[in-house]
From TrEMBL:
Species: Ilyobacter polytropus (strain ATCC 51220 / DSM 2926 / LMG 16218 / CuHBu1)
One of the GO biological process terms: intracellular protein transmembrane transport
Similarity annotation: Belongs to the SecE/SEC61-gamma family.
Topology in membrane: Single-pass membrane protein
Name of the gene this protein is made from: secE
Subunit structure, interactors included: Component of the Sec protein translocase complex. Heterotrimer consisting of SecY, SecE and SecG subunits. The heterotrimers can form oligomers, although 1 heterotrimer is thought to be able to translocate proteins. Interacts with the ribosome. Interacts with SecDF, and other proteins may be involved. Interacts with SecA.
UniProt-recorded Gene Ontology molecular function terms: protein transmembrane transporter activity
Main localization of the protein described in the UniProt heading: membrane
Keyword list, A-Z: Cell inner membrane, Cell membrane, Membrane, Protein transport, Translocation, Transmembrane, Transmembrane helix, Transport
Protein name stated in the entry: Protein translocase subunit SecE
InterPro entries: SecE_bac, SecE_sf, Translocase_SecE/Sec61-g
Localization terms from the record: Cell inner membrane; Membrane
A GO cellular component entry from the record: plasma membrane
Membrane-spanning intervals of the chain: 25-47
């Protein structure tokens, strides 16, 4: 039972974020996810086109 009591004591020390902090962090994560997706999509498109040009220039 000592283990359970220690868990309760540690749980009481946790500082939970408030609703505004969670909302702010969620918006940041979503925005960064979209930005990274767009960046990787554009990079993939450019790399694909360059590779196609390279292959076609060698008669592929």
């Amino acid at each position: 039972m000592k283990f359970i009591e220690e868990i309760k004591m540690e749980y009481a020390k946790v500082t939970w974020p408030n609703k505004e902090e969670v909302k702010h962090a969620t918006i940041i994560v979503a925005a960064m996810s979209v930005a990274l997706s767009v960046y990787l999509g554009v990079f993939d498109l450019i790399a694909s086109r360059l590779l196609d040009m390279l292959v076609s220039s060698f008669g592929g």
